[in-house]
Amino acid sequence: MLAVTLLSFASHAGALDLATYTPILPPYGVSKLGFAGPNASGTIVRAHRENFNAHGFDVVTFYVGDRQSQEPLSIVGFWKDDRESLYLTRFGGADCVLHDFRILISRDGKPALIVVADRTVGGTYMGEQLVSLSSMR
User: Does the predicted model carry a pTM greater than 0.85?
Assistant: First the structure.
């Protein structure tokens, strides 16, 4: 299983105090979460895609909207290495998770953060491997 303890995380502004953030993995279905800021609504949709083997995966999409407007929701894109994705995934095998993420919601009104964890398979799914952490913007 992919188990990650976040002890510190560096941002462009320097070290980040993670004690002021709450890590969240959204539940399946439609969730309203406070990741979009005080004047915007935040909606997250998490669904499972079964592959009919041990390697099904979850797809998670994020939407924001203006609380005062009748405009439609806008989908949130995520950027990594100059590539955009309109969703995040969570996947692994029957006995481990290889790719996961958490939304870090600030209790101080700061912007939410996404931390992504990736683990290589190595010789087997069950063998110990390093987990790399990255952020998404």
Answer: no
